[in-house]
Inverse folding.
């Protein structure tokens, strides 16, 4: 990859992983290339129209992504990324409302666990987990196993109407810190 032609780099966190999207735009050659985590996923050579859009998918769930290329003045261009038809910022804001992510170590290995609040799907290092949910006196519990460790995500009322539910991750009965939105 010629670093001189890379004009945009974005990091996007999805349930099945964090993806680094790079966009190459050769304004002299008309080349457009999209790289995801170092792998070329789209290439167009000799594009005579220097502005426009390039659409591709990201991740195992094939989330739609679009790089917009707009002329600002003369030969100056602006590059923006849309995910699922939303600006990247709106997409990130929405994801923080519908997912809960924990980053932790299990047996000395870095792990990323994502709960999709709307479906209650649980992802572990990019793999959708088999789970078992149950209702308990103070909320719900979603159970799953990671490398012989019993894990549980507890959904409890925050006691505040606007805050809604609070989600806690337990590994072998111990609460885990390290959550992010």
């Amino acid at each position: 990859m010629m670093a001189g032609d890379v004009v945009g780099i974005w990091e996007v966190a999805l349930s099945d992983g964090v993806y680094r999207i790079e966009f190459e735009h050769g304004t002299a050659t008309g080349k457009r290339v999209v790289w995801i985590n170092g792998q070329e996923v789209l290439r167009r050579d000799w594009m005579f129209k220097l502005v426009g859009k390039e659409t591709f998918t990201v991740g195992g769930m094939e989330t739609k992504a679009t790089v917009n290329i707009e002329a600002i003045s003369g030969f100056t261009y602006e590059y923006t990324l849309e995910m699922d038809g939303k600006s990247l910022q709106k997409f990130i804001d929405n994801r923080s409302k519908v997912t809960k992510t924990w980053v932790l170590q299990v047996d000395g290995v870095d792990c990323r666990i994502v709960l999709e609040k709307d479906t209650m799907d649980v992802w572990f290092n990019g793999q959708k987990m088999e789970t078992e949910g149950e209702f308990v006196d103070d909320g719900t519990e979603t159970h799953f196993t990671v490398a012989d460790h019993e894990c549980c995500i507890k959904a409890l009322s925050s006691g505040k109407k606007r805050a809604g539910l609070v989600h806690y991750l337990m590994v072998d009965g111990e609460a885990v810190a390290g959550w992010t939105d």
User: Anything to note?
Assistant: The radius of gyration is 20 Å. The chain is about 5% helix and 65% strand. The chain has a mean pLDDT of 90. The helical segments are 88-98.
